[in-house]
């Protein structure tokens, strides 16, 4: 630590204060402000207050090695010149069958210390548990853990019932999910993916012209979900075993969304298990709703009405969506602004337990006072800082006025939107301080979505995620700028705040 301090620029304290004051004023204004500091900046927009200078920024929670790695990767991801060849290289590495690639220890080490370490949780249970512990030490409540291993089909393989051993596929999938639940730890969350086909639009043109790969419970599941039929006894029994084990472990199950052609089937299966397990104040199973689909408000309203009528809690994970490259374009809102509006208005309706112009009651629902609104628990999965801030303002307003709220958690992908997650943690730390002063406030519940598996397995996940979310790569510029500001701040302040220990 002393050696770092010696090589850092020597800046007189008076000059350093002036530089930092100018730096914070110019670079950490309203756009870089934390959730809790936003009102202070609005009240004094021209001169930074002493609190703004002395309050650590959100990204100060990151250890320096993690901060530097995040900055370098986000810089590469935000470069239009680098991103295309980088994706091609990663795709080749992920799917190469060449022995010198698959069994190259040097290449394995390089990938594991860079892209893998940035976005994935570990290859072994001990590595996953260490990653979870590190995230909790930063201040996250825990992780939403997902297993990356895929069942692979060669291109042209038919997806037809009875042409393979469904029991073998489902058993393979179940073991991975059960281990994921175990590794999530008490009060953690596990992602449950029935399948994840490749993002090619041709996947769904015919069940006999299948995609190249599946992640999840196997090939026959694709046909069942496409037809929106009831789950087979084999998959139903396996899911029940997973739910029972998760309930015993105190772990919530978040069922991921997929492409539109199978989503109706996934919704029906999700409701089936929510009916059984989301009762008596316990919400075990959550479904995923994609705000960029025009149909989502009506679908969600219908599910809310079913939950109210049948007396169970609807678990909702709200996301913007990830399948613009594969689903038909007419299914989406016309502009990003419309998608943002739908996301924020759905969030507001659920949090305030009131219908609005976007989320309207289904025909079988009753539009009445707030206490008549269906019971719902919400996981807000967003990398958009504006959406998170809006939700936080609603939450704080509810606590000030005594309005009852729903159970709410926030989530972001590991390695992405660190500024958003760290802002939530900093807001929670301030909330704990306010509790000591008898002020009405609440600590936000922040989680990271973490994928685990071997480097080769997770590379396939990362490539697929990048292909499905190419529009999200543009947001890497915002991450890069925020991380760059924090790097500059630490370089100005010197080695004493590099945080190598975490």
Descriptors:
502 residues, 51% helix, two-stranded antiparallel sheet, globular, 8-stranded parallel barrel, disordered N terminus, alpha/beta
Write up what this structure looks like.
With 502 residues, the chain is an alpha/beta fold. 51% of the residues lie in helices and 10% in strands. The chain has 19 helices and ten strands. The strands form two sheets. It has an eight-stranded parallel β-barrel with strand order 1-3-5-6-7-8-9-10, surrounded by seven helices. Strands 2-4 form a two-stranded antiparallel sheet. Strand 7, helix 15 (336-352) and strand 8 (376-381) form a beta-alpha-beta unit. Helix 2 packs antiparallel against helix 19 (476-493) and helix 10 (166-184) runs parallel beside helix 12. 41% of the residues are buried. Residues 1-53, 152-163, 197-215 and 366-371 have low confidence and may be disordered.
